[in-house]
Queue: 2 jobs
Job 1
Amino acid sequence: MHLGLGAFARAHTAVFTEDAMLAAGDYEWGIIGVTQRSDTVARQLAPQDGLFTVAERGDGAAPARVVSSIVEAISGRDTPELVVERIAAAATKVVTLTITEKGYRFDPRTHTLDLDDPEIQADLAGQPPRTAIGQITRGLQQRALNGAGPVTVLSCDNLPGNGELTGTLVRGFAASLPTSESGSLLAWLQDNVTFPSTMVDRMVPASTEGDLAAVEQELGLRDEAAVVAEPFKQWVIEDNFAAGRPRWEDAGAFFSADVPAWEAAKLRLLNASHSMLAYLGLAAGKETISDAVADPAFRTACRRMMLEEALPTIALPAGLDGGQYCAEVLRRFANPALGHTTAKVGSDGSQKIGLRLIPTIRGTFDAGREPRWAALAIAAWMRHVAITPAADLNDPLAAGLHAVLPATRMPEDVVPALLGFRPAFDQDLAQHEGFTGLLLHWYRILENNGPEGLGNEINHG
Ligand SMILES: NC(=O)c1ccc[n+]([C@@H]2O[C@H](COP(=O)([O-])OP(=O)(O)OC[C@H]3O[C@@H](n4cnc5c(N)ncnc54)[C@H](O)[C@@H]3O)[C@@H](O)[C@H]2O)c1
Ligand SMILES: O=P(O)(O)OC[C@@H](O)[C@@H](O)[C@H](O)[C@H](O)CO
């Protein structure tokens, strides 16, 4: 099963699964895909028997291919009971998920389930579950009752320790059920469910009408569920499966005991610079990541953030050459055929900056240096929040962010106000004078000097 049947799952998980089946000649597997918030993808796939196109874009792109590993697509919003039933079925061996960072509904300070979330509370109270964690836990509860045996839950979202986190949240949900249910469920989870961690990588933008029209030209068929992706793809997985899995290694996945290090490197190099380019690009009116990275000053800022601040504060996994990785990341961002928008990458900033940039800021301060470039990324995010009307800010915490913003929007008011926004910043960082100073410096330049002045400052920085 896959929860969160967005663009990424189709261009990554479904492709690896089909390739694994083709390589091993083992056609026992198939994916039941579940959409979460809207039923669009389920509706698009249903009349196509689950078939959809993956069209690679950029140097080395393979011809468009039709992928057949999705055997059923259902709407988790409209048929949550069916999701529970499918998770509980003995035939289900692995539940993968890409539900975005906000879909986990965890408290970023404690990395535990947000029990104040009204949807979590409603799921706990027994409504047909609407949250992914509710659906998974209710599905596992039913599975235990059915005697359907062990299963693996495999988070594929851009989160550090995504497996451990998912396990904590599922157990947190189970522990919050009435005692008559929770004790036996927690014991069953302990014996029957594993939560390996993974690092996934492939840039997959949201498909546009132009993408669908181009695929129609290539294929001679209209495919409403087509996705475009860069040629590169990578999957590093912790080999801790409870009940069998496709031979993803035959499709190029890499099994490693060092997934946390791979995930940290990817989040703090690739994803951090992706976010940085998104907010700098948005400030300069650049529509896509490739437009943003084509700006020499923005590219310099990204490269210096990675090389001078992130790399020295990360323990790289064995076999990863940090310098080469950073160069490759910038090359991949420059792919002009991908059309990955700054708006999409910059969405949900409150959920991402803490994971992608704050560890580098802390590590650099701890090493006695100034995190100048990572602070630029945060200042650009702050300004994006401050100048975007709350209704247009694509962030689950948009209302809360705007509630703390001062009326004036002056840098010296906005920076401390957003630093005081607890879900994003801890108190020690919020009160760090050096950090506040760096943020104010960059915010004022962004506000007063325009893109050209910003470029000059970066080039002389
Ligand atoms: N697109 C990429 O380049 C890429 C690359 C690596 C990893 N990922 C991971 O995959 C995730 C999804 O990316 P995508 O491109 O498929 O996005 P998408 O917008 O196409 O799909 C997001 C999916 O998550 C679900 N979702 C959104 N909000 C949710 C919520 N509050 N609760 C439960 N489900 C929710 C949606 O219904 C949808 O199924 C990313 O957030 C990231 O963690 C994406
Ligand atoms: O998908 P998100 O929203 O977590 O982040 C946006 C991008 O940074 C991300 O999707 C990258 O494209 C991806 O992580 C590359 O593998």
Job 2
Amino acid sequence: MLSVRDLHVHFKVRGEGFFPEKRVLKAVNGVSFDLYPGETLGIVGESGCGKSTLARALLNLIPATAGQVVWLGRDMSGASSADWQAVRKNVQMVFQDPLASLNPRMNVLQIIGEPLRTHRPELPASEVLARVKAMLVRVGLNEAQLYRYPHEFSGGQCQRIGIARALILEPKLIVCDEPVSALDVSIQAQIINLLKDLQKQLNLALVFIAHDLAVVKHVSQRILVMYLGRVMELADKHELYADPKHPYTRALLSAVPIPDPKLERGKQIQMLSGELPSPLRPPTGCVFRTRCPHAFERCAAEVPALEAVNERSQAACWLYR
Ligand SMILES: Nc1ncnc2c1ncn2[C@@H]1O[C@H](COP(=O)(O)OP(=O)(O)OP(=O)(O)O)[C@@H](O)[C@H]1O
């Protein structure tokens, strides 16, 4: 459904401290992965590792600096805005801050109906109304809320409205950028379950971005772990939780509480020490090496490529070469 090859998104930013001249910040630095129809791919990593930039570049909301994004077999390099418009009919986004992502001057009918008015102008108003009503029920809201405004809803309800807006064009994929991070924990579970149900009913593919592994566990089939703009590990969910390969994934997993005391992490426990290096001056070689307990000489000298460790996981780590 989607193939991403060696994708780069670089920003030119003002330098800091002793380096006031403009510098290049590589927010996404050579990311490759595939997404299959109906699949959920979780993308995790600490704040600032490039998850949102990657998500936006997939839809050209931020232009890629280099690399390929191939949608349904079509290479989008050099595509016109009309070509991207056609992709966005099939691919929608749900954003992190539910209230901020809704136009405060529009009521629910206008918000959810807007994509229909843009992409399906031939539909009569009565049909738009019928589709919006049906979608509202689908996401757990009701018709009585059609003419209300965003500020009249809770965070969880606003996110339901955002999901309804994303689904109204019957897309094949939804990119969810930290859709539950701004919500209370009890509401998070409701929204995750809603997304899971909708995915099953509509055979949707989901890209689900979160900053911790506990959240993506319940929705993803495969998980991509990012650090400083690079992919550290890409693995089948069960493999990743049972036997994480990359030391960064192990560190992230150590921060996730284990509900079942019979499950032992044993020697895999590893806390993440030190701070995320500045993305303006990333370490040479493997970007994780300055915080990695297993780093050795080669890690500083050469960048490890993402390669298969077994048929269920790939890691970018010299420990496996
Ligand atoms: N428009 C921009 N101009 C300059 N730098 C940017 C821009 N957008 C993002 N960045 C930088 O790119 C890096 C990646 O940011 P991004 O928001 O993609 O990370 P993230 O993993 O999604 O973080 P978070 O979880 O906090 O949203 C960060 O260092 C950020 O400061």
